[in-house]
Structures are given as C-alpha cells and as structure tokens.
Amino acid sequence: MIARTALFAAFLSATFLPLCSVAITGCSTAVPNPPGDRLCGLVVWHKPASRDARVEIIGDWDGWRRPGVVPEIRADGWVQAAVDATPGEHAYAILEDGVWLADRQVPLTTFYKGKEVALGVALDCERPALHVDEATGTADGNVVVRASFQRALTGAPLDPASVVVQSGEGAALRAVRIDPDTGSLRFESTGFKRGKYTFSMKARDASGAETDDAVATAWVEPRAWDPRDAVVYQVVLDRFRGSDGQALRVPARPSDRAGGTLEGLRKAVESGEIEALGVDTLWLSPLYQNPEGEFAGSDGRPYSSYHGYWPKASRMLDARVATEEELDRFMRASHERGIRVLFDVVPNHVHEQHPWVKEHPDWFKTDCICGQGSCDWATHIKTCWFTPYLPDLDWTNLDAARAETADVMWWFDRWGADGVRIDAVPMMPRAATRRIVQAVRARYEHPGQRPYLLGENFTGPGGYQSLRYDLGPFGLDGSFNFPLMWTLRAALASETASMSDIEASFRAGEKAWVGAGALMAMMIDNHDVSRFASVSAGTSEGDSWLSPPQPTDPVVYAKQRVALATVLTLPGAPVLFYGDEVGLAGRNDPDSRRVMPGEGELFREQVETRSLVRKVGRARACSDALRRGSLRTILADGERFIFARELDGDPSGAVIVALSRRPSRDAEVALSSAFPPSLVDVVTGTKVDSSRGVIAVPRETFGVHIYVPAGSACSAQ
After folding, report:
1. Dihedral of the CA atoms 509, 515, 518, 520 (nearest 10)?
2. What is the rounded distance in angstroms from the CA atom of residue 116 to the CA atom of residue 315?
3. For the whole model, what pTM was predicted?
4. What are the helix (H) ranges across 238-311?
C-alpha cells in the first residue's frame, strides 16, 4: 500500500495542479484519475505562508503521533503529503510551525480534543466502483443514463454480463453500450411517462469483485429543472386538510392536534390546487414518529407533538399523519406532476423517548436549557437544549454524527426525497450540515440531478453574515432569507421603512453571499413567527394562545399581495407558507399555525389575494427570466420598487416588475431599444404600448404590475 500511495503521489505531483486537499473524495475541484487506475490512500495538499514554514500532517492513522508526515515544499509553494491510510474516514490536521490550521479545501470536518480537524475518506481500492456520469429525461419520454466502471487495483476489467440495473418505479433501461476496455456504460429507453425515475446499478469485474450500487435519477418533464425554478409551498400537515380533503375543525387549544394528514395534501396535489399557485416544490413538516401526550413548553403550557419536531423514532413514520403506503402514494402523485418534495429533517435533537437516549448516552450534549437563567442563546446556542425533554445530539461524537447522517439519508434512500430542509442549523457545528450535504451529494447528485439542501438559520434584521457561514461549495445550497423577510414587514406591513429598503436588503444579501453559489429561500413569514397579515392588521402582538379574528380590512390583503409578489419575482426560491395565499392571520407560534380555512370560509379579499398569487406564480413558472434571470433595478424610492429580470442582459425576453406602496403620481419607465414593441401586464391583462421605449406605471396604492412581452407564451397565461 505504501508503494502504491507513493507512486500515485508522484504521478499527481507531476501531472496535476494542487486543486484538492483530499484527492480521493469530495473536492471543490476534481482531480482526474490516473489512466487505468484509481486514487488510493490519502493525499493532502497545503500551501504554507512561506517557504521556510515547517508543515506536518498528523492524524488518526497512527494515533496522532508527532512528528507527523513532513512533506517537502514544491517549486510552486505547495506541499503534498501522501498518507498510507486504510479505507474509510480519517481525521487529520495540518500543523504549520506548530499551529493547527483548517484544511479549507476539505468538505468534511470532525473533532479531536476540542479542535475541529479535517475528515478525509480513503476509498477501498481493492474493489471496483461505478460512477454516474449523467442521467437525463426528455419531454417525449426518452431516458438516457451514462456511467463509468472504475477498476480495482487488481486491474481486472468489467464483466459485461454482470451489469444489473434496477428501478424502484419498475421501469426498464436497455443497455446500448457496455465497453469493458474503457469502462463506459450507456443505457437508454423510450416510452416513459412524466415523473421521476431512480435506477440502481451494480457490476462485477472479471475476477468477481462487486461494486457498491450507484444511483442515477432521471426526470421526464417538459423542461429540465434546477432549484432556481423552485416555488416552495410549506405545509404543517396537521393543520392543512383531513384525509377526506376537507377543511379541519379548529382544535380546542392551539397546541392540540387538528387531525390533518398527508392524504389531505395528496388530494390537493391531485386536484391541481397546488400547481395552480405555480408551486413545483412541497416542503412537508416532519413525518417522524412523535410521542403521544402533552409536554410543558417554555411558557409552562401543555403542547402536543402535532408539528413533528420531536423525533421519537428516526426511521418510523407517525401513523397519525401518514402511513408508509400513504407516503409512497403521495410521492408518486407528486412526482407524476413534476413536483419535488423536501422532507423536514431534525438532526439537532431527539425526544427523550428516543431509544438512543438510553442506548447511547454519550451521543448527547449535557448543558443548560436555552434562554433560561444564565443560559443565553448567544453564548450557549451550540450546546443548550430547547427543553429538558429534547436532548441535543453531540455532533463532535463521530459515532453519533454517522448515525444521524444515515437517518437523514433514509429519507432519500427509502422515500426518494428531492431535498431536505434542515432544522436548527445554528444549534449544530458546521461539521453537521457539511456531513449531511456531502452524503447526499455523493450518492444522489450528478449531471441532470441536483437535490436542494436548505437550512434553517433564524436571524434578525441585518443578519446576512451569520447566514453566510453555512453556505459555500461544501455547505448548504441555501438558507432562509430572514433579513429580507423583516425588511418586507417593515416596508409593507408596518410601513416603517421605505420601498427602497427592500432593494437595499436584497443587494446586501447578494454582497454577503457572493461566491457561495447559494439559492436563498424568500418568504414573508413561516411557522415560527407571526403571520404577515396580522402584522399588517396590527394584531400580531399579545398572547399567542388567543387568536384575533381574521382581518377584514382590504388594505391588509393589498399589502399581502405586494409582499407575495415581491418574493415571487425576486431571484431566489419563493416559499409560500400554507395560507399565505389567502392572507391567513396568526400571532406567534402556535397561533401562526392555524388550520387552513375551507373554500366556503373565504371572503372576497382572500380570494383576490389567491388569484394574484396564481397569476404571478404562473408567470414565474412560464418565464425563464423570472426564474433564472439577474435583477436590474430601474427605480427604488420611498414608495416604489421597479426592476427588470433579464437573462444574460438580453432585454427581449425580460420581465418588468413594478411594486408600489402609496405613490403620489404615475412613473415613467425607460426601456432599451431591444424591448419588444408591446407588453402585457399579466396581473391586469392590459396590453401596453412600449414602441417608444417608455411605459407608464400607474399611480396605485399597493399595486402590482408584471409586464411580459406581448405574444409570448407567458402573456397568454
């Protein structure tokens, strides 16, 4: 093994630039394999501050012995260390002149004696492997999967007869090419109906050594999707609909179960109600088995587990909400309509009834209760517990980290998750989310398939940098844009800020997250804060166990429409909390989680609000510019925010969005000469002459106007 590692290190040093720290596992820039071989052992790259620095690599392979591996500095200023490590995970550290340094190009970290250190993965090179190169589906039902067979160190080629491809959906792929010399595999079939298809592939080499399975996912749908296309609908299942699809009764106490189920949401999906909003992604409240009975909240009142955030069993469903058969049926119904499903996962804590609490007491932190006495959130957020009956997992314990990551992966492996929303991100070390993210990407991400991994990092106004910490190439795909949410409330609901502050908040986020590759989630409220409509009505303060009546003031709903239109037209992934589309009211939790009203309970202003959401949602679904285009500000002042969404600076397919609060006069918007001669306002259906390069945006209190090119598919929505 030492000889092989040394030979590989010499090959890598002579052939490739030092772009990766651990070249054999998830790197920010992949290093190609040597021809006919695989990358083995552990190869660490580091660029010290000076050529005179002394660098050591120490790790768990020899009990953290000092001195460690001492590499020589190359001519380009980098050092390279090849470590003879057994297959599997290895914790290590880079010491430069005795100082422990983070390895910034390694995706995973763990902990050693209180220090955060790198975690590399050495592959088992005694076995061959399969790698998914691409999986695609077309609107006419053609599916293509390409893969590569990588030989083991023995060098035995692929046995073509050993290749097995299975589909969880019962679909079949035809082998078009299997080349044992190059290891290239191609599968293709036609006649697939719309939906998601997952293929598990295995193979053996000529000596009989078998690969682990590789997973390829292909979607058959009208257009290729990525998370920028997402319009997310957040559902607290217990509060949405009953199994019969009908509205629920209001529970006697706001902390009681209302009886909503996944079946109720499935019926809304199948009826077209969800798609009518332009929604293509559903975020479900947690489905874990939760405890029976009531438990005291921080306010001393009794609470049930209706919300799902108290996992009692990590791989069992709560039958009060969904059975296995019902979840299978729901996933089929959603995927057949091109709707992605995000599961809400809770890796920070479990309920005290979870078997791990007794079986593995060393897997849990022992500290104070958040917000009680001297246990302030700011100082103790990484170690404190929500309540005495919700013990926090200790992610510095590697066994606990592995077990919890495997439990998160269960939602992908068993249920075909399209992504996850990760609860309580700031209460865990960044190593937690990175481990989850890397596990998901390593198994399920490939060209043509990208899961959406979204984190909940609750922040106040201006908390842009705190969100930045968990993003990046090795981090989450995105977080919830709480700073923008607070700005929308100030500018529209309470009118204590200007419309230009919305633009400023969005730009501040852009600046803070530049280079992170993040797709942020945009919302006006969620299950943990008071509802936007109640803030607008001035009834959001007070006892959250007392429910003020649903507002009737038309201005409340006019404000709601502008706020929703804002998040639906800005870059990012809009999130609609169930009931937002009808201006559902509510104080803080638990009142923010009222039952979804039935159709017969809605009054005119609520129906008009939903109608606006449907129009804007359809426009976003139709327009590439609204989903994926950049934002160019045209006007941002005290009462208006007008902007263009454009693809690659091409105004011919651009969309103009005009949002107003209480303007005193019309506004003229100058267009470039490349704009089409006429536009259509998808909100009012009015055709607008733009041939002179100018359009007039009318003076309108709490107005929304969205102009698309006349004659385009979007103008006919």
Report:
1. 10
2. 29
3. 0.93
4. 262-271
- Locate the domains of the chain by residue range: 2-122, 129-220, 525-622, 626-716
Q: Would you say 79 and 18 are in contact if contact means Cβ atoms under 8 Å apart?
A: no
Query: What sign does the dihedral 221-225-231-237 (CA atoms) show?
Result: positive
From the list 362, 367, 421, 420, the residue with the least C-alpha distance to 390 is 367
Tokens standing for residue 451: 């899961």
Residue 248 CA, distance from chain mean position: 30
Distance of alpha carbon 410 from the chain centroid: 17
pLDDT digits (tens, 9 = 90+) for 78-100: 998 888 889 999 999 999 999 99
Going from the C-alpha of 51 to that of each of 55, 95, 575, 657, the distances in angstroms are 10, 14, 50, 55
Rg (CA), the chain: 27
CA distance 415 to 343: 10
| Beta-bridge partners for 636 | 641
Is residue 212 a contact partner of residue 611, using CB atoms and an 8 Å limit? no
Query: Of the candidates 519, 393, 406, which has an alpha carbon nearest to the alpha carbon of residue 454?
Result: 519
Distance CA 706, CA 717 (A): 12
pLDDT tens figures, 619-661: 999 999 999 999 999 999 999 999 999 998 677 789 999 999 9
Question: Which has the closest alpha carbon to 137: 215, 216, 230, 213?
Answer: 216
Q: How far apart are CA 491 and CA 660, in angstroms?
A: 11
CATH code for the domain defined by 129-220? 2.60.40.1220
Q: Which of 294, 213, 560, 165 is nearest to 568 (CA)?
A: 560
3-state SS class at 20: coil
CA distance 682 to 154: 64
User: Can you name the CATH fold of 626-716?
Assistant: Immunoglobulin-like (2.60.40)
Q: By the 8 A CB rule, do 573 and 536 touch?
A: no
Q: Do 26 and 107 contact (CB within 8 A), yes or no?
A: yes
Q: What single string gives the DSSP state of each residue in 63-116?
A: TS-SS-B-PPBPTTS-EEEEE---SEEEEEEEEETTEEE--TT-S-EEEETTEE
* Greatest C-alpha distance within the chain: 80
Where residue 192 falls (left for φ over 0; alpha for ψ -120 to 50; beta otherwise) is beta
Specify the CATH class of 2-122 in words.
mainly beta
Three-class secondary structure assignment of 538-570: CCCCCCCCCCCCCCCCHHHHHHHHHHHHHHHHC
